[in-house]
Write a structure and sequence with these properties.
7 helices; 8 strands; Dehydrogenase; oxidoreductase
Length: 189
């Protein structure tokens, strides 16, 4: 025990007298460093996911403890990213744990100056009512020559790069089924 404490107190002595001659391991490890453990070691479970930032679809391992995300790392089993993440993907844990994250539906009425919180059910009802109303008002069944169109030009969708491939696929299917032909994603522009 005394030699170990001496090594911690005097890294050069441990380096010269021990097996770690280059000083890249135990010889230069401090007591504090030895007491640390990674956040991933105490996780209850690991969930595979896809990075939400761009259309690349890098694989992520999401470490969860007590139903709270504690760490996100690249998934080495992903054939796309092979365990690597860009700086934004590496920081995506902040997306869920940021204390400034907006977790309610915010709505600003026409000509209002302040935002108000809405229940999710009410916001979804408002959006679907407006979508159906616009579709009904702008529906084009056929052109002037009688060719079938079955579309609306009154609705367009521009997705964001924070959506993953599955979400973009579902949005494309939803809007196509509604007769919308102007569907694009910001990541492709």
């Amino acid at each position: 025990m005394g030699a170990r404490n001496r090594r911690r107190s005097w890294p050069v002595l441990g380096q010269l007298t021990g097996a770690d001659r280059l000083g890249r391991g135990a010889a230069v490890e401090s007591a504090r460093t030895a007491s640390l453990s990674p956040r991933t070691a105490t996780a209850d479970r690991v969930v595979q996911s896809v990075c939400p930032y761009c259309a690349v679809g890098c694989g992520q391992r999401v470490y969860v403890k007590n139903e709270k995300v504690v760490q996100i790392e690249g998934d080495p089993d992903s054939p796309i990213s092979r365990g690597r993440l860009c700086p934004k993907g590496s920081a995506s844990e902040q997306l869920v744990n940021n204390p400034n994250r907006v977790t309610s539906v915010r709505y600003r009425r026409p000509y209002a100056t302040d935002w108000e919180d809405l229940p999710l059910d009410r916001a979804v009802d408002m959006i679907s009512d407006r979508l159906l109303d616009t579709r009904a008002r702008t529906w084009q069944e056929a052109d002037k020559d009688g060719n079938k169109l079955r579309r609306t030009m009154g609705i367009a969708s521009l997705g964001g790069a924070t959506l993953d491939n599955e979400e973009n696929y579902l949005i494309k299917k939803l809007f196509t089924a509604a007769g919308v032909v102007q569907v694009e994603n910001q990541a492709r522009i």
